[in-house]
Hints:
mainly beta
Amino acid sequence: xxxxxxxxxKDGEIVEGxxxxxxxxxxxxxxxxxxxxxxxxxxxxxxxxxxxxxxDVTNDKIKNADFSQGNGTPQRLxxxxxxxxxxx
Length: 88
């Protein structure tokens, strides 16, 4: 779109785009202009979090993964009222 401009800022500096390789906060400014020259601006903050606790599946290695309850691991369900296991 010729009438859409996106400005990426990190630490007060204009940058080429968002890097997901390192943690940081970006401010994105979307500027939309119509044929009459009217302009609308919308600003959004994007936070990139550190990937230290992510699982690297490209080489089958797990680094610093936290598998504790409440971190994506489902709770173990008890048997139902008829004594049947919910796991089939």
